[in-house]
Design goal:
Chain B: Belongs to the binding-protein-dependent transport system permease family. The complex is a heterodimer of chains A (304) and B (319). With 304 residues, chain A is mainly alpha-helical. Chain A contains 14 helices and no strands. Chain A has a single domain, classed as MetI-like fold (Orthogonal Bundle), CATH 1.10.3720. Chain A starts with a helix and ends in a 6-residue tail after the last helix. The longest helix of chain B has 38 residues. The chains are: A mainly alpha (304), B mainly alpha (319).
Chain lengths: 304, 319
């Protein structure tokens, strides 16, 4: 049998163990596994850098993302304007930084709210079972039978465009998968013996659900929140690119890309769309790496 | 088998009814009288107030909500979807007009992504833990992280604007109607759409292949001394393929949804770009009808997939 890389690693660990060099492991096991995941750590670094740069945008650039300067239209990158200026002379670098605030808010905010609603419902109805469970299941099926972008666009056409509307629409279209996941988890967890013990002590149902069972399902919930964040950021970018997302007056990553629908801009003014497109890709990639790392470190069926 | 199909239909039909009811509710709540989108606007412009009142009576607009819903539903079932607000064209005409383009793009992407996804996924599973596997995992991750329209824009810039190899958009030029005249137009949107989807198929194929390689019959095949390619391709891949093929049925409707933005980027005259146009122009009847039809497609596809799986796997229909 050939010695694989894994075998060598084990041999090394065994040798260290025998020499008494191994320190006892500290902290949460899942956290340690996550820290050891190289891709997840790279993701976390990129994520933090982009997030912090957006939050502290005023400290990084002195340009105002909304200030129109007709004397400096479509200027290529220079020291004054790191990524050039757009058609109305607004600084693109500043717009990317400030745009990140809104884009990340939409992505993360929608994912968190969708999780609160989806998990909140799934946890309770999954535990209770009966007609309330069937009802919630049927409602989620209705939401899930629409292709997501079709449902989002349908709701946009009814509700109109605004930042708040977009977040509400994302929550409405995103809670169902979270609910399904929480419910599936509850169905297996509620058969555990500690739940029976709690029930026989007469602990109220709500307390059993949210205080005692829910923490055991946190792993997959976290994974779902990260992956949904990535999905919602992509959705916001796509919708705003079409001019149907956040109103064009608010800088977001998608709205900055909106100008690239014009083939002349596409060919002649690369600084208007290439940097922001790369930032979106990089950010979503980092969130996906974190999500995958979280899944690998919290899902016991993926050991080894 | 028959009981399984009946049981499955008993779930699908009420779902369809509930969703059609919600869509109708949406239609009633959005601005615009039902008269205005049921009649050709040309004719409506020449009508007097009295004729409108008569029309409302004839159309049953003075009836109760449920009765109106029933009339609308029977119309829809007969293929009479009402009229678009802009231009007053019958919605069924628009859909029939645009559907071939969307299907063309979707089938192209479906075939292409399934082929590449299966090959790369299998390769990744066979070389598990190697450099190839890691590289493919990262590439797959990139595939789900880059916004599809951004990828499309880069492709347009490189292959259409700078190299000039392929057209930047559109589907047909007047006078060019044979298959080979159209081929260059579908290459860019088709490949962009399929590469975005390949990532998903690849991951699925990889885990399915890993699963089948860990089964007992693979060990038996090895013990028999069969050559490695035969074990992997004939024994392993064939078993791994079944769930991947089943996945295709589920992908078809998502594909119709997924092509919405790509159609817009490449000016592809399909259902997706029509839908975006309708949303932009607040053409509610058209928006609602396309949404309803897409849900119908999703439910039908999942019904067919369920029946097919039940045919292949007896555990499903008995469970």
């Amino acid at each position: 049998m050939k010695q694989t890389a894994l075998d060598k690693k084990f041999d090394k660990i065994r040798a260290m163990e025998e020499a008494g060099q191994l320190k006892p492991a500290k902290g949460s096991r899942a956290l340690r596994k996550l820290m050891a995941n190289r891709l997840a750590m790279v993701g976390l670094v990129i994520f933090s850098v982009i997030l912090l740069m957006s939050i502290f945008a005023p400290l990084i650039t002195e340009h105002d993302p909304q200030k129109i300067n007709l004397r400096a239209m479509l200027k290529p990158p220079s020291w004054d304007h790191l990524l050039g200026t757009d058609r109305t002379g607004r600084d693109v670098f500043a717009r990317i930084l400030y745009g990140g605030r809104i884009s990340i808010l939409v992505g993360l905010g929608s994912a968190l709210m969708a999780a609160v609603i989806g998990v909140g419902i799934g946890c309770y109805t999954g535990y209770k079972g009966g007609w309330i469970d069937t009802l919630a299941l049927r409602i989620s099926e209705i939401f899930m039978s629409f292709p997501q972008i079709i449902l989002v666009l349908l709701l946009v056409s009814i509700a109109g465009q605004s930042l708040m509307n977009l977040i509400i629409i994302f929550v409405l279209t995103g809670w169902a998968p979270m609910y399904r996941m929480a419910r599936a988890k509850m169905l297996s967890l509620r058969e555990e013996e500690y739940v029976q013990a709690l029930r026989s002590f007469g602990v109220p149902t709500v307390k059993i659900c949210y205080k005692h069972i829910l923490p055991n399902a946190l792993g997959p919930i976290m994974v779902n929140i990260t992956l949904s964040t990535a999905m919602f950021i992509l959705a916001e970018a796509g919708l705003s690119f079409l001019g149907l997302g956040v109103p064009l007056s608010v800088p977001t990553w998608g709205n900055i890309l909106n100008v690239a629908q014009d083939l002349r801009v596409l060919q002649n003014n690369w600084w208007l769309w290439l940097p922001v497109g790369s930032v979106i890709s990089l950010f979503v990639l980092s969130v996906n790496f974190i999500g995958d790392g979280l899944r690998d470190s919290t899902d016991p069926t993926l050991q080894g | 088998m028959l009981t399984f199909i009946i049981r499955r239909l008993l779930i699908t039909i009420p779902m369809m009814l509930v969703i059609s009811f919600l869509v109708y509710l949406g239609l009633e709540l959005t601005p615009g009288d039902a008269v205005s989108h049921m009649i050709d606007p040309e004719a409506a412009a020449r009508m007097t107030e009295e004729q409108f009142a008569e029309m409302r009576e004839a159309l049953g607009l003075n009836k109760t909500f449920l009765e109106r819903y029933w009339i609308w539903l029977t119309n829809v079932v007969q293929g009479n979807f009402g009229h678009s607000l802009s231009g007053g064209v019958a919605i069924s005409t628009i859909v029939l007009d645009r559907l071939p383009a969307t299907l063309e793009l979707s089938v192209f992407a479906l075939v292409f992504s399934t082929l590449i996804g299966c090959v790369l996924g299998t390769l990744s599973a066979l070389r598990r833990g190697s450099g190839t596997d890691n590289a493919l995992t990262v590439v797959g991750m990139l595939g789900v992280s880059i916004p599809e329209f951004f990828f499309g824009l880069v492709a347009i810039l490189i292959f259409a604007l700078n190299l000039g190899w392929l057209p930047a958009g559109g589907r047909l030029l007047p006078g060019y109607e044979t298959f080979f005249d159209r081929l260059p137009h579908i290459v860019l949107p088709g490949i962009v759409l399929s590469l975005m989807m390949t990532a998903g198929v690849m991951r699925y194929a990889r885990s399915s292949m890993l699963d089948s390689l860990s089964r007992e019959f693979i060990r038996t095949a090895r013990a028999k001394g069969l050559p490695a390619w035969r074990i992997n391709l004939i024994h392993g891949f064939r078993v791994a393929l079944t769930p991947v093929v089943v996945l295709i049925g589920f992908r078809l409707p998502t594909l119709i949804g997924g092509s919405v933005i790509i159609e817009q980027v490449f000016q592809w005259p399909g259902i997706g770009s029509e839908f975006i146009g309708a949303v932009r122009g607040s053409d509610y009847p058209l928006v609602m009808m396309i949404a309803l039809l897409s849900v119908f497609a999703v439910l039908m596809a999942s019904l067919i997939v369920d029946v097919l799986t039940a045919l292949i796997d007896p555990r499903v229909r008995l469970g």
